[in-house]
């Protein structure tokens, strides 16, 4: 059982905490020891939010630092770029191609970089990009971007069966949203 370090980065209100709970639940079912930790910026006001998930045989600390993340799951492109130094050399950035403009861009003090993912690829980063927002919108639940990204992540865990992910989803998502979230998960898992 190898250790797996996952950072989930986004903007307040995008569901990073729910995503980390899903991964933790799935990890525990697979026999991993799990540690979760979250760091709030100005999450209530749309600021940056980071959640750490560590899976392993024995996990001592929930914090992930520079060069330790096997995966960074970014709910927005700039957030992925902001934390890229935490990714291992052979790690993967799973990123939603959605752009959420930060305040300096909104006020006109800065421009949103149009080529942020291309620049990361040029630097040798393994970028797995997905338009999670348009997939979430297909479910009728646009807030399920986080679950679309979890579906995408599940492809990297070949030893954990799909059923385990779906069972865990039922344990962390409210019943009234479960069917839309299952659809979101499968769209993220299956899109190429």
Number of strand elements:
6
Instruction: Supply the CATH class.
Output: Alpha Beta
Which whole number gives the mean pLDDT? 89
Radius of gyration: 16 Å
> Considering DSSP H and I runs of 4 or more, what fraction of the residues is helical?
25-40%
Output the helix-strand order.
EHEEEHEHHEHHHH
> Can you name the CATH architecture?
3-Layer(aba) Sandwich
The dominant shape is globular
Contiguous helical run count: 8
Span between N and C termini?
Answer: 28 Å
The strands making up the biggest β-sheet line up spatially as 2-3-1-4-5-6
- What proportion strand? 15-25%
Q: Detail the poorly predicted runs.
A: none
The chain-level structural class is alpha/beta
The CATH superfamily title:
Pyruvate-ferredoxin oxidoreductase, PFOR, domain III
CATH topology: Pyruvate-ferredoxin Oxidoreductase, domain 3
What's the number of domains?
1
What profile does the largest beta sheet have? 6 strands, mixed
């Amino acid at each position: 059982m190898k250790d797996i370090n996952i950072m989930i980065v986004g903007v307040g209100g995008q569901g990073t905490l729910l995503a980390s709970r899903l991964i933790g639940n799935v990890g525990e079912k697979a026999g991993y020891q799990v540690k979760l930790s979250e760091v709030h910026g100005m999450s209530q006001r749309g600021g940056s939010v980071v959640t750490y998930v560590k899976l392993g045989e024995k996990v001592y600390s929930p914090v992930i630092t520079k060069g330790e993340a096997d995966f960074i799951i970014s709910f927005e492109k700039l957030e992925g770029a902001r934390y890229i130094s935490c990714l291992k050399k052979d790690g993967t950035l799973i990123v939603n191609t959605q752009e959420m403009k930060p305040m300096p861009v909104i006020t006109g003090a800065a421009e949103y970089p149009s080529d942020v993912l291309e620049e990361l690829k040029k630097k040798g980063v393994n970028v797995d990009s997905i338009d999670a927002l348009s997939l979430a919108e297909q479910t009728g639940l646009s807030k399920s971007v986080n679950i679309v990204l979890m579906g995408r992540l599940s492809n990297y865990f070949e030893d954990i069966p799909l059923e385990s992910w779906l069972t865990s989803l039922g344990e962390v998502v409210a019943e009234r949203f479960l069917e839309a979230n299952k659809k979101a998960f499968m769209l993220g898992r299956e899109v190429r």
